[in-house]
Amino acid sequence: MTGKKRIFLGVLSVLIILLIAGVLLLLFILKNKSSEIYDLLMGSLILLFSIVAIFLIFCIIGFIYLVYSKSNNRTLNKILLTLIDASYPVLQILGGFLGIDREKFQQSFTNINNFLVNSRHEKYLPEELLILTPHCLQFNECKFKVTNDIDNCRRCGKCQVSDLIKLEEKYGVKVAVATGGTLARKVVKDIKPKAIIAIACERDLTSGILDVKKIPVYGIINTRPNGPCFNTKVNINEIEKAIINFTNGG
Ligand code: SF4
């Protein structure tokens, strides 16, 4: 298990410990102070904490099972993805209290999501696959509007939009450039892909993965050598590897 995955699973473990501690504390209070309304309130809280803790323990055990057995149990996979998505907001807050860097936490989440998406071993036709990239990948002085149609790119090579077009032509996948979350959602709605390879910064990628519930999203974090949202870059080899993975070799 890579270090990045461990960050998310570590925070998840801390949450389980806190929930178990909460249950024990409530049991202690219940034992020492008793009245009908008090019993009912405490009993409900104990039940709630216990159920959440059991689900999260199941999540960790299930994840470790998938990592080491290399199984492609789709039901387990979907349950884990749902549990991880549902627990993300609480875990992010807890991670903040524990002093974990937000970007590192989001990288860890993306890593776990990608592992689960990959371990499904589901294959798609190239045309069912969408590569979705943010507008900041385009050279900032380029005059051609690639957000409407990526084929408006003149392939001058000043930015990696031209590399994405090469991948589009080589594998027959769809490529779209979106200026923000709203447009990205519209593109997904219009194209109706069966799987998405999304390129973005940690924050946008995380919210995109959490947003798209029914389609598997493989996230690739961009690099920002010129600062955020400006002439960003992406590892093209990583995208190509993801395409090959999704399409059974293209
Ligand atoms: S590669 Fe395409 S999008 Fe990038 S600067 Fe050149 S023409 Fe513009």
UniProtKB/TrEMBL annotation:
The chain crosses the membrane at residues 7-30, 42-67, 79-100. InterPro entries: DUF116. It comes from the Bacteria. The keyword Acetylation does not apply. Pfam families: DUF116 (PF01976). Keywords: Membrane, Transmembrane, Transmembrane helix. This is DUF116 domain-containing protein. The lineage of its organism: Bacteria, Bacillati, Bacillota, Clostridia, Thermoanaerobacterales.
